[in-house]
Write a structure and sequence with these properties.
Layout lengths: L1 H31 L6 E3 L18 H13 L3 H4 L13 H19 L15 E5 L2 E5 L3 E9 L2 E12 L10 E4 L1 H5 L1 H8 L15 E2 L2 E2 H26 L8 H30 L4 H39 L8 H32 L2 H23 L1 H16 L7 E4 L2 E8 L3 E6 L4 E5 H6 L3 E2 L7 E9 L5 H14 L10 E7 L4 E9 L2 H22 L20
Parallel strand pairs: 1-5
Antiparallel strand pairs: 2-3, 4-5, 5-6, 7-8, 9-10, 9-13, 10-11, 11-12, 14-16, 15-16
Length: about 550
């Protein structure tokens, strides 16, 4: 019985080993015969020699690294093994392949931003994807490095996996090469982004790479910057000369305000022409200069648009209000406040559009979309903590623009002083005091504490002149004098509101108050000063005995007492 069990055990073990071997063979065959993992071709670059062993074409990262290393060493003949030259006749692949490799290396050096960490290092270019919150891997046989726009047409630089046709039972040896379409587009890309005719006259000794750039580029960059500064200054001066063309104030101001944005646009345009026609810098330099030029041009155009809108709105408001804010009507003050709010809205929209446009030019959204979504909460917290004062003031400014608790030109009593609201900006309010000083108040602080707005409904103000007089003063005489003086004053309105009353009385004296109506706070202050002066002069000249005085009581002593 024990012998029988041993034979059964050996049989089961043999069957398990055979099944395991068959399973492993089937996995290997299926992996090799999977048509989605590569493209089968009759032969890979038969016009070239056998690829040297130092070329690693096993993955996208290894292929691109081999090509870049060979190009930097100047070995373009060997670098041609990384191109799919199947579209060329076999006898032309050697000579033409070296030329195409050199041209592609120049385009990659000048235009391609290589993210080595992001390049797949696996043979099947395996990438991780997330579907329904579950992560999985996807194998590829095509990998896009970059796309370029040339005259409205899109040209791609792509790596593709190829393998020569083999027998059914023979394992394939797939390799990654620059695709056939990429090779077909090399000449177009080289004409668009390759070196310009001027660079052919640069000595080879100046083309030695020093750091990130070639030696001649270190010399050319300061010269290019100097030319841009010169173009900008020249443009600014030419634009400012337009002030002398017309005597119109609006036209003169338009030329002044247009000088800076037009100089920025002119400098960016000159740089684009200079770098696109005369010289073509390498990749590290382009990585800095190209975004800078785009931002310079967009900034100049945005600033020009903002200044044009600002000049238009300022012209409209000045036609309605003039150059003073002292006595505008309620509707005019509301109109001016609305214009300031419109300015702020246009500023936010323009700046936002400029930022989005710049980001879209460099595919920032495509590269950073998931990162931005993942870090949105962190960024919100950081911005909320770092910019809470600024953001709070901006929100408060929008609150003023919508609710209008205070308007441009309103007369207010703020922290014990009389002020006129002169301007409402994003983060602060500019107040003009009665003595023509400027008080700058953060918007959030301004709205956090009470203030008196004398212009909410009606600017009329009841003034009060207060005199402290002797109890023997005759109020009837004072009332007649005040009534005559107030009616004679041209700035006193509503004479039926004139009033004289004793508001306080004691053994030491009495307080007499005189009331009159003025059309606005500024006029009320002047009227109050004039009427007070009139009454004081009247008492001083006509009845000096009415002034308040100290009284001393002397008690008589009894006879014989000391």
């Amino acid at each position: 019985m024990s012998a029988f069990y041993k034979r059964v055990k050996r049989g089961i073990l043999l069957v398990a080993v055979c099944l395991a071997a068959l399973f492993a063979i089937s996995i290997q065959v299926s992996a090799q015969d999977e048509p989605a993992l590569w493209y089968e071709v009759e032969a890979i670059n038969p016009g070239l020699d056998t690829p040297p062993s130092e070329i690693d074409r096993s993955s996208p990262r290894a292929t691109l690294r081999s090509f870049v290393n060979l190009a930097e060493a100047g070995d373009h003949c060997t670098a041609a093994h990384v191109l799919n030259l199947s579209q060329l006749p076999q006898d032309e692949q050697r000579a033409r392949g070296s030329e195409l490799a050199a041209r592609l290396a120049s385009v990659i050096d000048r235009k391609l931003r290589i993210d080595w960490a992001g390049l797949p290092a696996e043979q099947d270019a395996r990438t991780t994807v997330s579907v329904n919150d579950e992560e999985g891997s996807v194998r590829q046989r095509d990998y896009l490095l970059e796309e370029f726009d040339v005259d409205g047409q899109i040209y791609a630089i792509r790596l593709t996996r190829y393998a020569e046709e083999t027998a059914v039972d023979e394992a394939a040896d797939p390799v990654w090469l620059f695709s056939r379409d990429t090779v077909d587009n090399i000449d177009v890309l080289y004409d668009a982004f390759g070196p310009r005719a001027f660079e052919a006259h640069i000595p080879d000794g100046m083309k030695v790479r020093v750091g990130w750039l070639q030696l001649w580029e270190w010399i050319a960059l300061p010269l290019v910057i100097g030319v841009l500064v010169l173009v900008g200054k020249l443009t600014s001066r030419l634009v400012r000369l337009g002030r002398y063309i017309s005597d119109n104030r609006v036209a003169r101001r338009t030329f002044d305000r247009a000088a800076l944005p037009l100089s920025l646009v002119a400098a960016a345009g000159a740089a684009h022409a200079l770098l696109g026609i005369i010289v073509s810098l390498s990749g590290p330099a382009n990585a800095i200069i190209t975004p800078a030029l785009v931002m310079l041009a967009v900034g100049g155009l945005s600033l020009a648009a903002l200044r044009a809108v600002d000049a238009l709105l300022d012209h409209v408001t000045r036609r309605h209000l003039g150059d003073t804010y002292d006595t505008p009507t309620s509707s005019e003050r509301e109109f001016y406040t609305s214009m300031y709010a419109l300015r702020r809205i246009i500023l936010v929209v323009t700046v936002g559009f400029a930022i989005v446009f710049v980001l879209m030019q460099f595919d920032i959204f495509a590269d950073m979309g998931l990162t931005l979504l993942a870090s949105a909460g962190v960024l919100t917290v950081i911005l909320g903590i770092a910019g809470q004062v600024t953001l709070g003031n901006m929100v408060a400014s929008l609150q003023i623009a919508i609710a209008k608790p205070v308007r441009i030109g309103d007369n207010i009593h703020y922290e014990g002083g009389w002020c006129i609201v002169e301007a409402i900006y994003f983060t602060f309010i500019q107040l003009r005091t009665w003595d023509d000083r400027r008080l700058i108040v953060p918007v959030k602080y301004f709205l956090s504490y009470p203030f008196k707005n004398w212009s909410v409904i009606d600017e009329r103000m009841l003034i009060t002149v207060r005199l402290v007089l002797d109890p023997m003063a005759e109020v009837t005489v004072l009332r007649d004098k005040f009534s005559a003086a107030a009616k004679a004053d041209p700035d006193v309105v509503e004479h039926d509101k004139l009033c004289t009353a004793i508001t306080d009385h004691s053994a030491q004296g009495m307080t007499v108050e005189f009331y009159a109506m003025a059309p606005d706070p500024w006029t009320a202050w002047l009227v109050e000063m004039r009427l007070r002066e009139e009454l004081v002069n009247f008492v001083r000249i006509e009845h000096p005995g009415w002034w308040w005085r100290d009284r001393v009581t002397i008690e008589a002593q009894a006879p014989g007492s000391r």
